[in-house]
Amino acid sequence: MSLMTAKEAAEKWEITHRRVQEIIREGRIEGVYKIGNVQVVPDDTQKPSDLRKERYKKKDKESN
Questions:
Q1: Alpha-carbon distance 32 to 52, whole Å?
Q2: Looking at residue 7, what is its pLDDT?
Q3: Secondary structure of the chain in HEC code, one letter for each residue
Q4: Pseudo-torsion of CA 20, 22, 28, 34, nearest 10°?
Q5: Which residues pair with 21 in a beta bridge?
Q6: For the segment 5-45, what is each residue's pLDDT rounded down to a tens digit?
């Protein structure tokens, strides 16, 4: 199994390292674990959908 760090995931998914950390903290990526102080993610993990966008879509629909 190939692994990538949270920083490498951020580069691959074109988001910030901090955002990857938040997604991991929320438990939205499976197979994450720590090696020392580094969080690692399976290399074949797909970028999770952005729940913030979905919340805004719901809010816009409710206001119309």
A1: 22
A2: 94
A3: CCEEEHHHHHHHHCCCHHHHHHHHHCCCCCCCEEECCEEEEECCCCCCCCHHHHHHHHHHHHHC
A4: 70
A5: none
A6: 999 999 999 999 999 999 999 999 999 999 999 999 999 99
Q: Around 31, how many Cα atoms within 13 Å sit in the side-chain half-sphere?
A: 11
Q: What are 41's two structure tokens?
A: 């993610």
pLDDT of residue 61 exceeding 90, the answer is no
Residue 27 Ramachandran class (φ > 0 left, ψ -120 to 50 alpha, else beta):
left
Helix (H, G, I), strand (E, B) or coil at 33: strand
* Two tokens, residue 11: 């580069």
Residues facing 41 on adjacent strands? 4
